[in-house]
Specification:
Length: about 210
């Protein structure tokens, strides 16, 4: 127990150091237009990590990941599958908002990559969900799009990784018909919950409260 407590303190301290480095970062032009950097937030112990593209307007103002309309929808999707935001760690591939919510450039992602790599290494997730094209293509080193990749399991450095539609895409596609983006996302998040429960046998699964 003492060792696990020491480990948790170490991880929290290291994440705090990374957060401070991100706040002071001027490695790419995105720093020039930001209000706040967005480090990410959530549990460092659950083993489930969600990686999006980058902060939007609400995130840029509040300094937290996925707090706008897309974030609110993400919360609903997770809770419908009995996964709760307090039990997952959520971050983005870039920590500053791209102008007009455009897709981050490769140079911008590269500039932020050491921060993302450090977060993943410290949190040591068992499952990663990538939301949309940008994090999916970056981590899997592929040019394939999210439509072809979503709902499939990939092994990424020994971690179970599933790409899913970004919630902002779901906001633009409101249909709930069979095989619509929302319907497919519901199937995907249930699959993640099943996988997590399977991995967690003998451990502590994500809350079912």
């Amino acid at each position: 127990m003492y060792d696990s407590q020491k480990k948790e303190i170490y991880i929290k301290n290291e994440l705090t150091i990374i957060n401070k480095k991100i706040a002071a970062c001027t490695a790419c032009p995105l720093c020039q237009g930001r209000n706040k950097t967005v480090f990410g937030q959530g549990s460092i112990n659950s083993g489930l990590m969600i990686i999006g593209e980058g902060p939007g307007a609400d995130e840029d103002l509040q300094g937290e990941a996925f707090v706008g309309k897309a974030g609110q929808l993400l919360t609903k999707i997770l809770e419908a599958a009995k996964i709760y935001r307090k039990d997952v760690f959520i971050t983005n591939v870039v920590k500053c908002r791209p102008p007009n919510n455009r897709v981050p450039t490769v140079d911008e992602i590269v500039a932020c990559n050491s921060f993302l790599e450090s977060q993943i290494a410290l949190i040591s997730p068992k499952i990663i969900i990538t939301l949309g094209n940008t994090p999916t293509r970056w981590l899997l080193k592929t040019s394939e799009g999210i439509t072809a990749l979503r709902g499939k399991w990939f092994k990424w450095r020994g971690v179970e990784l599933m790409p899913q539609f970004h919630p902002s895409y779901l906001l633009r596609n409101q249909s709930r018909a069979k095989n619509s983006p929302k319907d497919l996302t519901w199937n995907d998040i249930q699959d993640v919950k099943r996988k997590w429960d399977e991995i967690s046998k003998g451990g502590s699964p994500i809350s079912n409260e």
